[in-house]
Amino acid sequence: MAVVASPLQYGDPPHLGPFVLRARLWAGPAGLVYLGQAPDGRAVSVAVLTRGAALDPAARDRFVAAIREAASGRSVVRGWVARATRGRAALAADAPPVLGMNGGSAPWVATPYEPSRAGAERFLEPVLVRGMLIGERHGPDFAPYWVSDRVPALPGPPKPAPPPTEPRRSVILAGVVLTVLLVLTVVMAWLLLRAEGEAQTPRRPLPATVFVPTPPPVPGTPDPNRPTVSPSPSPSQSGTGTPGPREGDEDDGAPI
After folding, report:
1. What is the pTM of this model?
2. 133-134/137-138 β-pairing
3. Contacts of 120 (CB under 8 A, 6+ apart)
4. Are 121 and 45 in contact (CB under 8 A)?
5. Per-residue pLDDT tens listing for the chain (256 residues)
6. Positive or negative torsion for Cα 26, 32, 33, 35
7. Are 110 and 100 in contact (CB under 8 A)?
């Protein structure tokens, strides 16, 4: 099949899996083929179903089965589907090696790109079955209802990551901390209520005390009739160690 690369159009996916799409190689009623680049830099051929074919369970199953059969080295086209191909060789005999695939809601397949050899478009051949075999006779040709839909099937957005979960040890530790905080809160509340209750309890008043001040001492008036007694001087006050004459010695008139 001679293919000519053309630029990507609006609606073409920029990449499929790890393969970056560079150009469009071929577009058919069953799917589209792109020229892509693998992570290691080599050119690849990537085929993806159209949106209508991807929504048809039978067409999607034929595409995925062809890829899996070719990857395992077994014949893809069997039974009435093989006879409906009117003598064509089995795909598994000359199918290119499969480098990557996705069999989800928007299946695709990637094979090595060789300009002189058919690439991933070989897996689109069994998707579109023309004619219906009843015994050895073919019925009239028919076209699927989705044959006019040439929009590539794009994979849906990735599912959101599940919320992070804490290990069991962390959960138990958090529970213990919350329990301790709860107990401390209850104890503090009980102490506050107890303090308020004690503050509201009336106390008995103290007995009244009478303070009688003591009058200051009054100095007494000396009695004039009472003789005043002079203190006798001490030996240190007389100046010498010899006592002076007494009053009775002078009256005697004795010579000194």
Report:
1. 0.54
2. antiparallel
3. 33, 45, 46, 47, 96, 109, 110, 111
4. yes
5. 456 788 998 889 999 999 999 999 988 888 999 999 999 999 999 999 999 899 999 999 999 999 988 888 644 444 434 444 443 445 556 778 899 998 888 899 999 998 888 889 889 988 877 554 444 555 556 677 888 888 888 877 777 877 777 678 888 888 899 999 999 999 998 888 887 776 666 667 777 777 777 877 777 666 667 666 555 555 555 555 555 555 555 555 444 4
6. positive
7. yes
